[in-house]
Design brief:
The chain is an alpha+beta fold and 275 residues long. It has two domains: 135 residues, Rossmann fold (3-Layer(aba) Sandwich), CATH 3.40.50; 130 residues, Tumour Suppressor Smad4 (Sandwich). Helices cover 20% and strands 36% of the residues. The protein has six helices and 19 strands. The strands form four sheets. The chain has a six-stranded antiparallel β-sheet, with no helix packed on it. Helix 2 links the parallel strand 2 and strand 3. The radius of gyration is 20 Å and the shape is elongated.
């Protein structure tokens, strides 16, 4: 049994929790793999591994906020994940730090017995000619070169081949139900309960505002862009990629979802931390 541990960088509490989890699992005979930064923080340089090797583990434990979880998820592939919440909200991280050791040990034991429960949440990819984005857990954004007055681009949005909207805007976002509570919410999009199999299409500062739209999560969203020097495609706030215009970017569900193990987060309790 191999367990990967990723602690939030420059967070002593996260490193402390990672060390406690590691100690307990090693005592249980579990092989622990720490990413290079976490191992270095614990002066365990020989135990460090590149984050890309997390996909070879049987479980990945993220210790920090949602950003740390997204960082680990990009490398975890279809390996089940459990999140320890040191952030303010914690929609992706269901475990409190004081309960982290017991929660992880219980999850490891369940995996070893073969009776663990894994929940799946979709990831998104964006594709255009010669380009495919890094899979996103929260959202894909297609934007103009910059935001604000004089920026943006002209966008035409199609859902499964049918035109939904067209006009000038800063950008268009396609968010999963997981990501509906983050960037999407700040752009005026709706909250979507994690039990709803839907995606949210939200226009960002449109001249003629397009109402946010919730669609089936199997739908393909095609965003055509013109009237700008170039467009930018961003996955979960990272890996911005410039594409030449005119271009049509298709956003759809990725082949591999993010897989969540261990306790479930209370959606409404997490919502209460947003205010």
């Amino acid at each position: 049994m191999k367990v990967g541990l990723v602690a939030q960088r420059d967070n002593s509490r996260a490193v402390e929790v990672a060390d406690a989890i590691r100690g307990a699992l090693v005592n249980d005979g579990v092989d622990c793999r720490l990413d290079t930064a976490t191992a270095s923080s614990l002066d365990l340089t020989t135990d460090g591994t590149t984050v890309e090797r997390l996909a070879t583990c049987d479980l990945v434990v993220s210790i920090g906020g949602d950003g740390t979880f997204l960082f680990a998820a990009r490398a975890a592939g279809d390996t089940p994940m459990i999140g320890v919440n040191l952030g303010e909200v914690g929609f992706l991280n269901a475990v409190a730090p004081d309960n982290a050791v017991d929660a992880v040990r219980n999850t490891v034991n369940a995996i070893q017995r073969g009776d663990h429960t894994v929940r799946e949440a979709p990831r998104l990819t964006a594709r255009a000619a010669g380009f495919e984005s890094v899979p996103a857990v929260n959202e894909i954004v297609v934007s103009g070169p910059r935001r604000g007055h004089g920026g943006g681009a002209t966008f035409e949005v199609e859902i499964e081949g049918s035109t939904y909207s067209s006009g000038h805007a800063d950008g268009v976002m396609v968010a999963t139900q997981t990501g509906s509570t983050a960037y999407n919410l700040s752009e005026g999009g709706p909250l979507v309960h994690p039990g709803v199999d839907g995606l949210v299409v939200t226009e960002m500062c449109g001249v003629e505002e397009m109402p946010p739209l919730v669609i089936d999560d199997d739908s393909a969203v095609t965003i055509a862009v013109r009237d700008a020097p170039h467009a930018v495609v961003v996955s979960d706030g990272r890996n911005p990629h410039e594409v030449d215009l005119p271009v049509a970017v298709t956003v759809s569900q990725a082949d591999t979802p993010v897989r969540l193990a261990g306790p479930t987060a209370d959606f409404f309790d997490a919502l209460g931390k947003l205010s």
